[in-house]
Amino acid sequence: MLITLAEPATDQPVVKPLQPAIEIHGVTKCYRTRTGDVQALAGIDVVVAAGEVVALVGPSGCGKSTLLRIVAGLEQPDTGDVRLFGLAPAQARREHRFGIAFQAAALLEWRDAAANVALPLELAGWPPAARAERVAALLARMGLSDAAGRLPRQLSGGMQQRVALARALALAPPVLLLDEPFSALDELTREQLQGELLDLLATIEPRPAVLLVTHNLAEAVLLADRVVVLSRRPARVLAEVVVDLPHPRRADARDDEQLHRLVARLRTVLRRDQDEVMGSGE
């Protein structure tokens, strides 16, 4: 699907049609277990526009992370199609079209913070001087300049996640995939990193498209432009809720009454799905 711009005026430069950043169409996924097949995803359709932040929420174990891993090319769907700027995930990865961060920072234990951030740049063939300059800028932006030479075991959980985010952003990808990056942190650290992510997204030009997996409804509303609600397994899209909080968004928006109303709306959708499952006796 293409998003096309209106016909330009004759005195304006011609703008080429824009492709969505992420297209997920008809994706299904089934796992084979000792007790039989388990269907995780049932015909998922999601489109993320360039520069848009979309959060995936749903019950634990519903397939949110599975869907993100399929987008990243780490798993294959049984049916359906995924494209990132028109490219299959494997090709998008080769062309450095996305960065990814997980719940666990997944840092290489024998490399210090700077070397972990530098890894994508090394693999992409950046020369040492340019690599060092880029890493220094990213660490400074994340408030980690003083920690550049520390090994992961010498960093707090929040600092490790900052390093992981810096690494995901190293090649300035147009897509950022985040799989519950703050869920293992204490509440205060999580809120601090949410604010830092908002600040990052407000200052990066062009802003990357973000697909965020989270089980925290308030986090989804705070960070996202749109929230996609998935059902219990096998997951299907229950609802898409537009977050109409103003931009640039700041961390103190978590106290906004509109945010609380949207969280309540999401909770109602999820509870209704839970009640239907319980009522059916499944």
TrEMBL record:
Record keywords: ATP-binding, Nucleotide-binding, Transport
Cited PROSITE patterns: ABC_TRANSPORTER_1, ABC_TRANSPORTER_2
Protein name: ABC transporter related
Organism of this sequence: Chloroflexus aurantiacus (strain ATCC 29366 / DSM 635 / J-10-fl)
GO molecular function (one): ATP hydrolysis activity
A Pfam entry, by short name: ABC_tran
SMART domains: AAA
Keyword flag ATP-binding: yes
ATP-binding as UniProt keyword: yes
Lineage top rank: taxon: Bacteria
Domain ABC transporter intervals: 22-257
